[in-house]
What does this fold into?
Amino acid sequence: MGVRSGMTHHRDLSPRSLERQERLVLEGLVGSVPEAERAVLGLTLADVAGGALLTLGHYPQVMDFNRTLSLGVERPATGADLDELQAAGRAHGLTRLMVGVVPGAQPGDLRGRLLERGAQPTRAWMQLWREATPWNSPAPGLDLREVGPEETGTFLDVMGRGFSMPPDLMAMGRGVLGRAGWTHYLAWDGGVPVASASLHLQGGYAWLGNATTLPDWRRRGAQLALVARRVTDAARAGAHTVFTQVAEDLPDKPNPSEHNMRRAGFQVAYRRDHLLLPTGLGA
It folds into this structure.
Protein backbone atom coordinates (compact mmCIF):
# COMPACT_ATOMS: atom_id res chain seq x y z
CA MET A 1 0.00 0.00 0.00
CA GLY A 2 1.06 3.60 -0.42
CA VAL A 3 1.53 4.51 3.26
CA ARG A 4 4.53 3.91 5.47
CA SER A 5 5.01 2.62 9.00
CA GLY A 6 7.26 3.78 11.83
CA MET A 7 5.39 6.95 12.83
CA THR A 8 6.00 8.83 16.09
CA HIS A 9 3.06 8.52 18.46
CA HIS A 10 2.29 12.00 19.73
CA ARG A 11 -1.27 13.25 19.39
CA ASP A 12 -2.07 16.97 19.44
CA LEU A 13 -5.70 17.83 18.69
CA SER A 14 -5.36 21.59 19.11
CA PRO A 15 -6.46 23.88 16.27
CA ARG A 16 -2.83 24.86 15.73
CA SER A 17 -1.83 21.22 15.20
CA LEU A 18 -4.75 20.05 13.07
CA GLU A 19 -4.79 23.20 10.93
CA ARG A 20 -1.11 22.53 10.21
CA GLN A 21 -1.88 18.93 9.33
CA GLU A 22 -4.70 20.05 7.05
CA ARG A 23 -2.32 22.42 5.33
CA LEU A 24 0.15 19.59 4.71
CA VAL A 25 -2.61 17.70 2.91
CA LEU A 26 -3.45 20.73 0.80
CA GLU A 27 0.20 21.39 0.02
CA GLY A 28 0.45 17.88 -1.37
CA LEU A 29 -2.75 18.32 -3.34
CA VAL A 30 -1.82 21.69 -4.83
CA GLY A 31 1.79 20.68 -5.44
CA SER A 32 0.71 17.58 -7.34
CA VAL A 33 -0.99 19.63 -10.08
CA PRO A 34 1.33 20.64 -12.94
CA GLU A 35 2.23 24.33 -12.94
CA ALA A 36 0.47 25.09 -16.21
CA GLU A 37 -2.79 23.56 -14.97
CA ARG A 38 -2.48 25.37 -11.64
CA ALA A 39 -2.17 28.63 -13.52
CA VAL A 40 -5.31 27.96 -15.58
CA LEU A 41 -7.28 26.98 -12.48
CA GLY A 42 -5.92 29.82 -10.35
CA LEU A 43 -4.98 27.13 -7.81
CA THR A 44 -2.62 28.44 -5.13
CA LEU A 45 -1.73 27.93 -1.49
CA ALA A 46 0.35 30.67 0.11
CA ASP A 47 1.22 32.32 3.41
CA VAL A 48 -1.08 35.29 3.84
CA ALA A 49 -1.95 37.40 6.88
CA GLY A 50 -0.13 35.14 9.33
CA GLY A 51 -2.09 32.11 8.13
CA ALA A 52 -2.61 30.52 4.74
CA LEU A 53 -4.87 31.24 1.79
CA LEU A 54 -6.07 28.57 -0.62
CA THR A 55 -7.51 29.81 -3.91
CA LEU A 56 -9.21 28.33 -6.95
CA GLY A 57 -9.72 31.51 -8.93
CA HIS A 58 -11.27 29.83 -11.97
CA TYR A 59 -14.10 28.64 -9.72
CA PRO A 60 -14.72 31.55 -7.33
CA GLN A 61 -18.04 30.08 -6.24
CA VAL A 62 -16.39 26.94 -4.80
CA MET A 63 -15.73 28.26 -1.32
CA ASP A 64 -14.16 24.99 -0.13
CA PHE A 65 -11.16 25.99 -2.27
CA ASN A 66 -11.24 29.76 -1.75
CA ARG A 67 -10.60 29.94 1.97
CA THR A 68 -8.18 30.59 4.79
CA LEU A 69 -6.44 28.32 7.25
CA SER A 70 -4.97 29.23 10.64
CA LEU A 71 -5.94 32.91 10.61
CA GLY A 72 -5.16 34.27 14.07
CA VAL A 73 -3.66 30.96 15.21
CA GLU A 74 0.10 31.43 14.93
CA ARG A 75 -0.19 35.09 15.95
CA PRO A 76 -3.01 37.61 16.43
CA ALA A 77 -4.52 38.84 13.17
CA THR A 78 -4.17 42.61 12.86
CA GLY A 79 -6.16 45.08 10.83
CA ALA A 80 -3.24 45.16 8.39
CA ASP A 81 -3.49 41.37 8.10
CA LEU A 82 -7.16 41.59 7.16
CA ASP A 83 -6.30 44.28 4.61
CA GLU A 84 -3.65 41.93 3.19
CA LEU A 85 -6.13 39.06 3.08
CA GLN A 86 -8.70 41.07 1.16
CA ALA A 87 -6.04 42.38 -1.21
CA ALA A 88 -4.84 38.83 -1.89
CA GLY A 89 -8.39 37.80 -2.72
CA ARG A 90 -8.74 40.68 -5.15
CA ALA A 91 -5.41 39.77 -6.76
CA HIS A 92 -6.84 36.32 -7.51
CA GLY A 93 -10.02 37.82 -8.99
CA LEU A 94 -12.20 36.77 -6.05
CA THR A 95 -15.08 38.87 -4.80
CA ARG A 96 -15.20 36.99 -1.48
CA LEU A 97 -13.27 34.50 0.62
CA MET A 98 -14.38 31.95 3.18
CA VAL A 99 -12.55 32.82 6.37
CA GLY A 100 -12.23 30.21 9.11
CA VAL A 101 -12.18 31.22 12.77
CA VAL A 102 -11.13 28.42 15.12
CA PRO A 103 -11.42 28.32 18.92
CA GLY A 104 -8.69 30.40 20.49
CA ALA A 105 -8.01 32.47 17.36
CA GLN A 106 -6.66 35.90 18.22
CA PRO A 107 -7.63 38.60 18.73
CA GLY A 108 -10.65 37.43 20.70
CA ASP A 109 -12.91 39.71 18.70
CA LEU A 110 -11.66 38.45 15.32
CA ARG A 111 -15.13 37.33 14.30
CA GLY A 112 -16.52 40.75 15.15
CA ARG A 113 -13.80 42.48 13.16
CA LEU A 114 -14.67 40.36 10.14
CA LEU A 115 -18.36 41.19 10.55
CA GLU A 116 -17.45 44.90 10.62
CA ARG A 117 -15.85 44.41 7.19
CA GLY A 118 -19.09 43.06 5.79
CA ALA A 119 -18.47 39.34 6.33
CA GLN A 120 -21.53 37.10 6.45
CA PRO A 121 -21.72 33.89 8.50
CA THR A 122 -21.94 30.67 6.53
CA ARG A 123 -21.91 26.96 7.33
CA ALA A 124 -19.27 25.91 9.82
CA TRP A 125 -17.05 22.86 9.47
CA MET A 126 -16.36 20.27 12.13
CA GLN A 127 -12.80 19.03 12.56
CA LEU A 128 -13.31 15.38 13.51
CA TRP A 129 -10.85 12.80 14.78
CA ARG A 130 -10.56 9.28 16.12
CA GLU A 131 -7.80 7.01 17.29
CA ALA A 132 -6.22 4.92 14.56
CA THR A 133 -7.21 1.41 15.62
CA PRO A 134 -8.19 -1.47 13.32
CA TRP A 135 -11.92 -2.14 12.97
CA ASN A 136 -14.39 -3.42 10.43
CA SER A 137 -17.71 -2.32 8.93
CA PRO A 138 -19.00 -4.85 6.40
CA ALA A 139 -20.78 -3.67 3.27
CA PRO A 140 -22.61 -6.72 1.94
CA GLY A 141 -22.11 -7.28 -1.76
CA LEU A 142 -19.31 -4.73 -2.08
CA ASP A 143 -15.61 -5.40 -2.51
CA LEU A 144 -13.15 -2.75 -1.28
CA ARG A 145 -9.79 -2.56 -3.02
CA GLU A 146 -6.81 -0.23 -3.28
CA VAL A 147 -6.53 1.48 -6.64
CA GLY A 148 -3.79 -0.05 -8.76
CA PRO A 149 -1.98 1.65 -11.65
CA GLU A 150 -4.40 0.15 -14.15
CA GLU A 151 -7.42 1.55 -12.28
CA THR A 152 -6.48 5.21 -11.96
CA GLY A 153 -8.81 6.23 -14.77
CA THR A 154 -11.65 4.33 -13.11
CA PHE A 155 -10.99 6.05 -9.80
CA LEU A 156 -11.06 9.47 -11.43
CA ASP A 157 -14.25 8.63 -13.29
CA VAL A 158 -16.06 7.56 -10.09
CA MET A 159 -14.79 10.55 -8.13
CA GLY A 160 -15.67 12.95 -10.92
CA ARG A 161 -19.19 11.59 -11.36
CA GLY A 162 -19.80 11.28 -7.64
CA PHE A 163 -18.87 14.91 -7.03
CA SER A 164 -20.16 16.17 -10.41
CA MET A 165 -16.73 17.71 -11.00
CA PRO A 166 -15.93 19.67 -14.17
CA PRO A 167 -13.26 17.92 -16.26
CA ASP A 168 -10.55 20.51 -15.61
CA LEU A 169 -10.80 19.98 -11.83
CA MET A 170 -9.85 16.35 -12.30
CA ALA A 171 -6.24 17.55 -12.36
CA MET A 172 -6.42 17.72 -8.56
CA GLY A 173 -7.37 14.06 -8.34
CA ARG A 174 -4.98 12.94 -11.05
CA GLY A 175 -1.96 14.54 -9.40
CA VAL A 176 -2.14 12.63 -6.13
CA LEU A 177 -2.51 9.22 -7.77
CA GLY A 178 0.74 7.42 -7.06
CA ARG A 179 2.06 10.27 -4.91
CA ALA A 180 3.98 9.31 -1.76
CA GLY A 181 1.80 9.30 1.35
CA TRP A 182 -1.46 8.83 -0.57
CA THR A 183 -3.52 5.68 -0.98
CA HIS A 184 -6.77 5.51 -2.94
CA TYR A 185 -9.66 3.06 -2.83
CA LEU A 186 -12.64 1.91 -4.85
CA ALA A 187 -15.69 -0.03 -3.74
CA TRP A 188 -16.92 -2.48 -6.36
CA ASP A 189 -20.32 -4.09 -6.84
CA GLY A 190 -19.32 -7.09 -8.91
CA GLY A 191 -17.50 -5.55 -11.84
CA VAL A 192 -18.96 -2.07 -11.31
CA PRO A 193 -16.96 0.60 -9.41
CA VAL A 194 -19.44 2.49 -7.23
CA ALA A 195 -17.55 4.55 -4.61
CA SER A 196 -14.17 6.21 -4.09
CA ALA A 197 -12.10 7.40 -1.15
CA SER A 198 -8.53 8.47 -0.33
CA LEU A 199 -6.13 8.29 2.61
CA HIS A 200 -3.23 10.66 3.24
CA LEU A 201 -0.66 9.77 5.88
CA GLN A 202 2.12 11.95 7.23
CA GLY A 203 3.79 12.26 10.61
CA GLY A 204 1.41 9.92 12.43
CA TYR A 205 -1.72 11.74 11.25
CA ALA A 206 -4.01 10.21 8.65
CA TRP A 207 -6.51 12.32 6.70
CA LEU A 208 -9.60 10.99 4.96
CA GLY A 209 -11.00 12.60 1.82
CA ASN A 210 -12.25 12.19 -1.77
CA ALA A 211 -15.16 10.13 -0.45
CA THR A 212 -18.13 9.86 -2.77
CA THR A 213 -20.59 7.21 -3.92
CA LEU A 214 -22.46 7.09 -7.21
CA PRO A 215 -26.16 7.95 -6.68
CA ASP A 216 -27.63 4.51 -7.40
CA TRP A 217 -25.43 2.89 -4.72
CA ARG A 218 -25.84 5.36 -1.88
CA ARG A 219 -27.18 4.27 1.53
CA ARG A 220 -25.71 0.79 1.15
CA GLY A 221 -22.80 1.20 3.57
CA ALA A 222 -20.03 1.80 1.03
CA GLN A 223 -18.65 4.93 2.67
CA LEU A 224 -18.77 3.56 6.20
CA ALA A 225 -16.91 0.48 4.99
CA LEU A 226 -14.34 2.68 3.22
CA VAL A 227 -13.84 4.68 6.42
CA ALA A 228 -13.23 1.43 8.33
CA ARG A 229 -10.76 0.22 5.70
CA ARG A 230 -8.80 3.47 5.73
CA VAL A 231 -8.71 3.73 9.53
CA THR A 232 -7.47 0.15 9.72
CA ASP A 233 -4.83 0.71 7.03
CA ALA A 234 -3.68 3.91 8.75
CA ALA A 235 -3.33 2.08 12.08
CA ARG A 236 -1.35 -0.75 10.49
CA ALA A 237 0.93 1.81 8.82
CA GLY A 238 1.76 3.36 12.21
CA ALA A 239 -0.62 6.32 12.41
CA HIS A 240 -1.97 7.35 15.80
CA THR A 241 -4.71 9.78 14.73
CA VAL A 242 -7.21 9.90 11.88
CA PHE A 243 -8.89 13.22 11.09
CA THR A 244 -11.16 14.82 8.54
CA GLN A 245 -13.41 17.84 8.02
CA VAL A 246 -17.15 17.80 7.39
CA ALA A 247 -19.77 20.51 7.02
CA GLU A 248 -21.71 20.97 10.24
CA ASP A 249 -24.83 18.83 10.51
CA LEU A 250 -27.82 21.18 10.91
CA PRO A 251 -31.55 20.49 11.35
CA ASP A 252 -32.37 22.21 8.06
CA LYS A 253 -29.18 21.02 6.31
CA PRO A 254 -28.42 17.47 7.40
CA ASN A 255 -25.03 16.10 6.45
CA PRO A 256 -24.85 12.32 5.93
CA SER A 257 -21.05 12.51 5.99
CA GLU A 258 -21.04 13.68 9.60
CA HIS A 259 -23.52 10.92 10.48
CA ASN A 260 -21.18 8.34 8.95
CA MET A 261 -18.16 9.69 10.79
CA ARG A 262 -20.02 9.66 14.11
CA ARG A 263 -21.02 6.06 13.54
CA ALA A 264 -17.36 5.34 12.80
CA GLY A 265 -16.35 6.61 16.25
CA PHE A 266 -15.13 10.07 15.25
CA GLN A 267 -15.33 12.86 17.80
CA VAL A 268 -15.26 16.64 17.48
CA ALA A 269 -11.83 18.18 17.93
CA TYR A 270 -13.29 21.66 17.34
CA ARG A 271 -15.80 23.62 15.32
CA ARG A 272 -14.42 25.99 12.69
CA ASP A 273 -16.67 28.98 12.27
CA HIS A 274 -16.85 30.34 8.71
CA LEU A 275 -17.61 33.78 7.37
CA LEU A 276 -17.75 34.97 3.75
CA LEU A 277 -15.56 38.05 3.61
CA PRO A 278 -15.97 40.46 0.67
CA THR A 279 -12.67 41.44 -0.89
CA GLY A 280 -13.89 44.74 -2.31
CA LEU A 281 -13.45 43.61 -5.89
CA GLY A 282 -16.17 45.15 -8.01
CA ALA A 283 -17.59 47.05 -5.03
Observations:
- Residues 15-125+272-278 form one domain.
- Helices lie at 15-31, 35-41, 79-91, 110-116, 152-163, 170-176, 222-236, 256-263.
- The first strand starts at residue 43 and ends at 48.
- Residues 15-31 form the longest helix (17 residues).
